Amino acid sequence: ARVGLMNEIVNSIQMIKFYAWESSFKAAVMDIRAKEAGILKRMLWWQALFTMLLFSGPVMMAVAVFAVYAATGHVFTAATGEGRAAVRGVGWLLGLCRAAVSSWRAY
C-alpha cells in the first residue's frame, strides 16, 4: 500500500506542489508507515518467541523427563543420570545431575 502511494506521489509531484497538498500526503504516508511498523513489530515478537521455543524446547524436555523420573519415585543417581543423558544427547546436563545428587546426599 505504501509503495503504491509513493509511486502516486512521485508521478504527480508537480500537481501536489502546485496545490500545496504536501501535508495531506505526508499524513497519509506516515499513517501507512505506522501501520507497517506495528505489523513488523508483531512479526519480530513472534519470531523471537518461536526462536526461544526452538532452542529451549529440547532443554525443557530433558528437564521435564528427569523431573518426572524423579517424581515417580525412581532413585536418581549419577549412574542413571549419565545413562539417560547419553541417550538424550544432553551430556552437559550430567554435571547438573551430579551436583544435584551430591547436594541431596550431603543433607
Question: What is the chains' assembly state?
Answer: single chain
Q: What level of helicity do the residues show?
A: over 70%
Instruction: Estimate what percentage of residues fall within beta strands.
Output: under 5%
- The parts where pLDDT drops under 50 for at least 5 residues are none
Q: What summary fits the major beta sheet? A: none
N to C succession of SSEs: HHHHH
* Global geometry: rod-shaped
Termini, distance in Å?
67 Å
Radius of gyration, whole Å: 29 Å
Tell me the number of strands: 0
Mean pLDDT: 79
Instruction: Give the structural class.
Output: mainly alpha
Q: Please, how many helices? A: 5
Descriptive account of the structure:
87% of the residues lie in helices and 0% in strands. It has 107 residues and is mostly helical. Helix 1 runs antiparallel to helix 3 (22-71). The radius of gyration is 29 Å and the shape is rod-shaped.
